[in-house]
Design a protein that fits this description.
By secondary structure, the chain is of the alpha/beta class. It folds into 2 domains: 194 residues, 3-Layer(aba) Sandwich (Isopropylmalate Dehydrogenase), CATH 3.40.718; 133 residues, Isopropylmalate Dehydrogenase (3-Layer(aba) Sandwich). The protein has a 12-stranded mixed sheet, sandwiched between helices. Helix 7 packs across helix 8.
Length: 334
């Protein structure tokens, strides 16, 4: 049986958008002892400059796969990827978008070949990456593309696991995207990963309706009757423990949450506002369905906080701890 000692876990942390709080978070997390080996991928000069600006002590160590032992406070192992252009805190430049993509690609490559056990990502700026002519709707979708797999976004926090049928889409496009194939595929992935990655033997998944009041028996929309319910009935017949579809405005009631292992919502702003209200700054973004382990913070680039020393590393710490847990759980099921 493989070792489940977290000290043997090697995580790679992407530094994210160079003009945002990603570099600050890397510097802040360096001030902690961690029960894993942590490698940051990014521009080492950017990290050193940001450490000086926010007045945090930092010793940079060139990454070596032969280095062993847990991360110790005050230092960072860095897999250096140089910026394409100088970076100014708070002022993103599309000229560095390729740099951001390179860090993601190298991190994923290392996870796929066994060099790293999992990747933790700092936030990136989707608009700036698109301004560079690179199609990018988010980490979830891009990592799915890189690994040739299907993916589901899950946010964990506030005693909730919230998953999404659709992610970064305009609201006007959501209904057409809620198809039987998509729902079945995503529910199967969620059920599988709750069992394998979270070690929940019989996951209880509650499903939100798309429309107000879950369609009100068809008077407020027919997607529940025509699409969602038939999929749930099919999967229940196979043994999946699915509840709903229920109205989204009541299924987050704390009295009911203890009866659910996961909430499956139909679109981004149906599920995430509630979860982030309950745990913003402490939540974790987990990508299900990938052949690798990926976690992330629950917030964006926070350009206004870059290089101010006010960035809160709580969500990043939670993402690192979650990645360690998922690695341990994976090893237990091998």
């Amino acid at each position: 049986m493989p070792s489940i000692n977290p000290a043997n876990t090697i995580l790679i942390l992407t530094a994210g958008e160079p003009a945002g709080v990603g570099p600050d978070l890397c510097v802040e997390i360096a001030q902690r002892d961690l029960p894993c080996k942590l490698v940051v991928i990014g521009d080492k000069n950017l990290l050193q400059d940001r450490a000086q600006i926010i007045q945090s002590p930092l010793k940079l160590i060139d990454y070596s796969s032969s280095t062993v032992g847990n991360h110790k406070s005050g230092s960072l192992q860095v897999l250096h990827v140089p910026l394409d252009k100088p970076s100014v805190p708070g002022k993103p430049d599309s000229g560095n978008s390729r740099y951001v993509i390179k860090t993601l690609e190298r991190a994923v490559e290392g996870c796929c070949n066994g060099e790293f056990d999992g990747v933790v990502t700092a936030p990136v700026h989707k608009g700036v990456i698109n301004d560079a002519g690179i199609t990018f709707t988010g980490h979830t979708e891009y990592l799915s593309q890189l690994t040739n797999s299907q993916a589901v976004m899950m946010l964990v926090g506030g005693n909730m696991r919230v998953t999404l049928a659709t992610t970064h889409l305009p609201l006007k496009d959501v209904a057409a995207t809620i198809t039987p194939i998509r729902l079945e595929q995503k529910l199967r992935l969620i059920n599988h990963d709750l069992i394998v990655r979270f070690l929940i033997s019989s996951p209880r998944i509650v499903v939100a309706g798309l429309n107000p009041h879950a369609g009100e028996s068809g008077h407020l929309g027919c997607e529940e009757i025509e699409t969602i319910i038939p999929v749930l009935e099919k999967l229940r017949a196979e043994g999946m423990n699915l509840i709903g579809p229920l109205p989204a405005d009541t299924l987050f009631n704390p009295l009911y949450l203890e009866n659910y292992d996961c909430i499956f919502t139909m679109y981004h702003d149906q599920g995430l506002p509630v979860m982030k209200h309950a745990s913003f700054g402490k939540g974790v973004n987990v990508t299900l369905g990938l052949p690798i382990i990926r976690t992330s913070v629950d917030h964006g680039t926070a350009l206004d906080l870059a290089a101010t020393g006010q960035a809160d590393s709580g969500s990043l710490l939670a993402a690192i701890k979650m990645a360690i847990t998922l690695v341990k759980n994976r090893n237990l099921t091998l």
